[in-house]
Write a structure and sequence with these properties.
Blueprint lengths: L1 H24 L13 H12 L13 H19 L2 E7 L3 H6 L6 E6 L3 E3 L2 E3 L9 E9 L10 H5 L2 E10 L12 H6 L6 E4 L3 E2 L4 H9 L1 E6 L4 E6 L7 H14 L9 E3 L4 E3 L5 E8 L6 E6 L1
Parallel strand pairs: 1-11, 3-7, 4-14
Antiparallel strand pairs: 1-2, 5-6, 5-11, 5-12, 6-7, 6-8, 9-10, 9-13, 13-14
Length: 297
C-alpha cells in the first residue's frame, strides 16, 4: 500500500513538473503593433478638418500607442495653417465622461496658436463637423518648476495668470456614439477653437486656491437661459489638479513646460451651440466675478 501511494505521489510530481515546464516554455503573446495612421490618412484627415467635415472613423484595431502617434502627426500637419504649439489641454477630466470612454484617467491634447481667440469673438455656429462648447479654464505657466508641484498652492507659485475660457471642441466624427478613447486621442482630443477672457493675476496662497475650488461656474446665453452650472471642484476635485496631471504626463513624454505655455484644464460643464446666440461663462467667487463671451452666427 505504501509503495503504491509512493508511486502515485511520484507520478503526480512528474506530471506537475512537466506541465510547469510546458507552461514556462510557452512564449508570451507578442504586443499589438502600434497601428499608427499612415501619412496619406493624416493628409486626408487634415483636409476634412479644414473643411469642417467629419473625419473617417478610426481603424478597429487602433491601439492607444498608435493613436498617440497619429495625434502627433495630425498636430504637426495642422501647424502650417494653425501655427505653432502654444499649450496643451486636459480632456476627460470628469469621471462620468471617463466611464463613457472606458478610461480611468484624463487625456492630453495640443493647442495651436490660431485655435485661440479673444473675448467676444464671433464664430460660425458650424465651426466644426460636430461642434459643442464647454465652460473651461486656462492657466499660463510662469516656470518649469510647475513639474515639481504637488499641491494647488505649489502649482500657483509656478503660474503667471488664470484665464476664463470657453472651449469650442469638435467631436469630428460622423457618429459620435461610435467614438472610442483611442479615436479621441488620435483626433487630438477634439481640439478645435477656444475663447480666452482677460487674465486674472495669480496669488500663490491658500485663499486663491480655495476660491478656484469653490467658485461657481455659470454658463448662460443672451436670452438668460441657463446652459450649465458647476463648482470649481468638478475638474478632478480641484481645477489645478489638472495642471499637476498635465505636467506629469508631459514630463513622461519628454516635454518640459516653459514660461508662456497655456494649459486648458477641462470642462466644468458642456453645452450645445446655437446660431444667433451669445454665450457667457461667469466665474462667481474669483476676484471681480470675471466672465468670457463668444457669439455664434
Amino acid at each position: 500500500m505504501a509503495t503504491t501511494l509512493s508511486r502515485l505521489m511520484l507520478t503526480s510530481a512528474v506530471v506537475a513538473a512537466a506541465l510547469a515546464a510546458g507552461c514556462a516554455a510557452t512564449p508570451p503573446e507578442p504586443p499589438k503593433p502600434p497601428t499608427c495612421p499612415s501619412d496619406a490618412e493624416i493628409a486626408t484627415k487634415v483636409e476634412r478638418f479644414l473643411a469642417r467635415q467629419p473625419v473617417a472613423d478610426a481603424a478597429a484595431d487602433l491601439t492607444f500607442e498608435g493613436a498617440a502617434c497619429g495625434a502627433r502627426k495630425f498636430v504637426t500637419a495642422l501647424q502650417p495653417t494653425h501655427g505653432p504649439v502654444v499649450g496643451y489641454r486636459a480632456g476627460l477630466t470628469n469621471p462620468t465622461v471617463q466611464q463613457r470612454f472606458k478610461m480611468d484617467h484624463p487625456m492630453r491634447g495640443t493647442l495651436l496658436e490660431k485655435m485661440l481667440l479673444r473675448d467676444g469673438a464671433e464664430v460660425p455656429a458650424a465651426f466644426g463637423a460636430r461642434p459643442f462648447l464647454e465652460a473651461d479654464l486656462v492657466v499660463e505657466v510662469a516656470s518649469s518648476a510647475v513639474h515639481d508641484a504637488k499641491t494647488p498652492v505649489e502649482v500657483l507659485a509656478s503660474l503667471r495668470a488664470v484665464y476664463p475660457f470657453i472651449e469650442l471642441p469638435d467631436q469630428m466624427v460622423a457618429d459620435p456614439a461610435k467614438l472610442t478613447g483611442a479615436a479621441l486621442q488620435a483626433n487630438n482630443v477634439g481640439a478645435r477653437l477656444g475663447v480666452l477672457g482677460a487674465p486674472i493675476v495669480v496669488r500663490a496662497d491658500a485663499a486663491f486656491a480655495d476660491a478656484l475650488r469653490d467658485m461657481t461656474v455659470r454658463t448662460s446665453d443672451d436670452t438668460g437661459r441657463a446652459i450649465g452650472t458647476a463648482k470649481g471642484s468638478a475638474i478632478l476635485g480641484h481645477p489645478l489638479n489638472a495642471v499637476i496631471w498635465l505636467a506629469a504626463d508631459l514630463k513622461a513624454s519628454g516635454i518640459t513646460l516653459k514660461p508662456g505655455d497655456l494649459l486648458s484644464l477641462g470642462a466644468f460643464s458642456p453645452g450645445p451651440v446655437q446660431p444667433q446666440r451669445t454665450v457667457t461663462v461667469t466665474y462667481e467667487g474669483l476676484p471681480g466675478n470675471p466672465a468670457v463671451r463668444v457669439s455664434f452666427r
